[in-house]
Write a structure and sequence with these properties.
The protein is an alpha/beta fold and about 375 residues long. It is built from 15 helices and nine strands. Helix 2 crosses helix 11 (about 240-255).
């Protein structure tokens, strides 16, 4: 396969890499957005203003050529006409309440609703049918809508029971925070970020969605999904059958993006971003899912997290002499962490597991060791 003639799957993989290069510390969110469009599911991004939620969404949806787009910043004053279209005056004369949906959400392939929880109950109720059945009732006539994915963002969670049903329909969810690394901060301020160049057509997206649907769901993965649900119920978290059913297509999309024709245990990692409603439950859900999906990677995450904790401890030590002492004490622990990560990498290679993330964690530990080592060198 030449670069001049990539497969559709290769185009989506390239687009993901390019969007990652155009953003900082957003790989999980980018991957989640890719999975959403490939599985025809919907996304919610939670986070404070200024964390590039809208920018991230725009980078993806605008690379799908031939797709109709709809975008609206919701407020408590937003009217149904702004979302679903104005009522046709000519129809009113005939006692018909028919909307002109041209250019509005029922006409769009991709919809981005910012500050989604500002929507009033009338709008929220109409959105439910569009999201679920891809249908919109217009003057008593049910019209099919072309919606592929609804993308939403807010700096808050829904504040009332009337919005709970709508919140439940956004299958993939992320908490988006500010960047933590200086290099990321620097690149953002310098605007040193390349724009994506890969595009996919709407027809290619639709073909990719068919290919995703054709990915074989293995019995092994089904059993793991059952075990995840059982363990979560034991912790008082009860994902619905509907959510687990919708999750299947996301798991298939994850396998597809990796170039596979059937699912494997690694693919259920996506459940981490599907099964939570309350952000406080995320860590617990991730621990349970990862212990079943990839226990090697779960252990690797612990070593990576320990390394970052060491770095934060060194950084937070204000006295220069004391900081050097802390750095010297912790340097060895980072070396030990890297050795353990290398062992896990070898174990994963022996079991045929995907090693991309553990290799990333090893690089992170190396970077932290390098920073701490530089602190210890006299200037």
């Amino acid at each position: 396969m030449t670069e001049a003639n990539p497969t559709i799957q290769e185009k989506f993989a390239s687009l993901e890499k390019e969007i990652n290069a155009a953003t900082m510390e957003r790989k999980d969110e980018v991957h989640g957005l890719m999975l959403a469009v490939l599985s025809k599911n919907h996304v919610f991004l939670l986070g404070p203003g200024g964390t590039a939620k809208s920018y991230l969404i725009d980078l993806l949806r605008k690379q799908v050529t031939g797709a109709k787009q709809f975008q609206r910043l919701m407020t408590r004053f937003t009217q149904p006409d702004e979302i679903f279209g104005p009522v046709k005056l000519s129809a009113l004369k005939e006692d018909k309440f028919e909307r002109n949906t041209d250019g509005k959400l029922p006409d769009a392939h991709f919809a981005f609703l910012d500050e989604i929880w500002k929507a009033n109950s009338s709008i929220a109720n109409s959105l439910l049918k569009i999201i679920n059945e891809r249908e919109f009732e217009n003057n008593g006539t049910i019209m099919k809508v072309p919606l592929q994915t609804m993308l939403t963002a807010s700096n808050e969670l829904p504040g009332g029971e009337e919005l709970d049903a709508l919140y439940d329909r956004f299958l993939i969810k992320f908490v988006v925070g500010r960047v933590h690394e200086f290099d990321s901060f620097s690149n953002i301020l310098k605007r040193n970020l390349p724009a994506p160049t890969t595009t996919v057509t709407l027809q290619e997206l639709e073909q990719a969605q068919k290919d995703v649907e054709a990915v074989k769901l293995t019995d092994e993965v089904l059993k793991l999904m059952w075990q995840v649900r059982e363990k979560l119920e034991h912790e008082g978290i009860e994902p619905s059958d509907r959510r687990m059913q919708w999750a299947v297509r996301v798991i298939q999309a994850h396998a597809y993006l990796r170039g596979n024709t059937e699912t494997s245990p690694d693919d259920i990692e996506v459940l981490c971003d599907i099964l939570w409603d309350n952000p406080e439950h995320y860590a617990l859900i991730r621990r349970i899912v990862m212990e079943l999906a990839n226990p090697y990677l779960r252990q690797a995450e612990e070593f990576k997290d320990q390394a970052w904790a060491v770095w934060k401890a060194v950084q937070s030590t204000e006295d220069k002499k004391e900081r050097l002492m802390v750095a010297a004490e912790e340097a060895k622990s980072l070396g030990d962490a890297k050795k353990e990560l290398e062992k896990l990498k070898d174990a994963m290679a022996g079991s045929g597991r995907d090693m991309e993330k553990v290799e990333k964690y090893i690089r992170e530990v190396d970077e932290i060791r390098s920073k701490i080592t530089k602190m210890m060198v006299p200037v």
